[in-house]
Amino acid sequence: MSENSCSFRNEKERRDGQVEGVSAGYSPPCDKDNSALLAFRGIPISELKNHSILRALTVEANGWQPGVVNTEVLRAQEEWEAVDSIHPETGSQASSEQPGHLVSFSEALQHFQTVDLSSFKKRIQPTIRRTGLAALRHCLFGPPKLHQDLREERDLVLTIAQCGLDSQDPMHGRVLQTIYKKLTGSKFDCALHGDHWEDLGFQGANPATDLRGAGFLALLHLLYLVMDSKTLLMAQEIFRLSRHHIQQFPFCVMSVNITRITIQALREECLSRECNRQQKVIPVVNSFYAATFLRLAHIWRTQHKTISDSGFVLKDLEAWAKKSPRRLLKTLEIYLAGVSKGQASLLGAQKCSRPRAPHSKDLTFTGVCDLPPNSPQATWLI
């Protein structure tokens, strides 16, 4: 450090009388290279900008006066002054109504168990109506009826399927944010409306418009899929398949259709035998949904399906799933057992030698509820 710098510092010390407060009673020699650094030891960073010595060095040294300050300097100054106001774990896009932490499936389910759903419950039809020979055949050869003590749990599932997405409900927002973060790996919250939802496989900027026929149950199923460590791997595999350059499909819309199939299987009592065996409804419904989604992904990849095949694939999948629910659930058990053993992807590598298909935006996704009523492939879920 030069003698002029030492003299300047000593002059400032005499003017402000703050040398003891700055260096805690220690005045290092002027000939030390690190003397200026030692002088500021113990001063918080946020206080440096208010210290008289620092102001003197930046304003009055050598008679320099600030001139016109450009926008970059102003921006840097604003960021510096904001240091004190930064709080950890708040997130730049988080809000009090939509906390940044993830929500579990059980927490979201508990929310619906505690709120008043009476207006939605009035709309449900727990079982489909059968008449004539269909009713007789079902009575003689059909699956058993659901146990009486499980019907309230079944009705809760069907009631949630009648609830829409409410952007004013903080829990609804947290469920959406959790799904987005787990699929994309993002650490930050996102807007509840925007083009980023199309990246997840919704057909528009508002996810609520794609929940027709499945309601909020469709989002709960996605939440279940991404919040379990085993099924998360499956969700990520299917998500990657949905973004394949040839076999692409809208991931979330496809999931909604799988939820529709699950609802119909529950109403047709196809799951009653398994529910009675496990003495539970919601875990069986969740597993049936995951197993059906897994089978769809396997068919989609191995049979080289594209988005133009969606309606017919879903129709065949629905018929097979309702006919063989136990076999379907066993397939999921095998997959999850393989995941727990650390096996490689059970979906396998995505290879396709067929010509490139048109981009998904040039085609219309056909779900099980979108087939024309006069088509032999048409089906009605709710």
Could you explain the architecture of this structure?
- Helix 11 packs across helix 13 (about 215-225), helix 13 packs across helix 15 and helix 14 (about 230-240) packs parallel to helix 17.
- The chain has about 375 residues and is mostly helical.
- The radius of gyration is 31 Å and the shape is globular.
- The termini are far apart.
- It has a domain at about 105-340.
- The model is unreliable at about 20-25, about 55-60, about 80-100, about 350-360 and about 370-380 (pLDDT under 50).
- The chain contains 19 helices and no strands.
- The chain has helices at about 5-15, 20-25, 35-40, 45-50, 50-60, 70-80, 105-115, 120, 130-140, 150-160, 170-185, 195-200, 215-225, 230-240, 250-265, 270-280, 280-300, 310-325, 325-340.
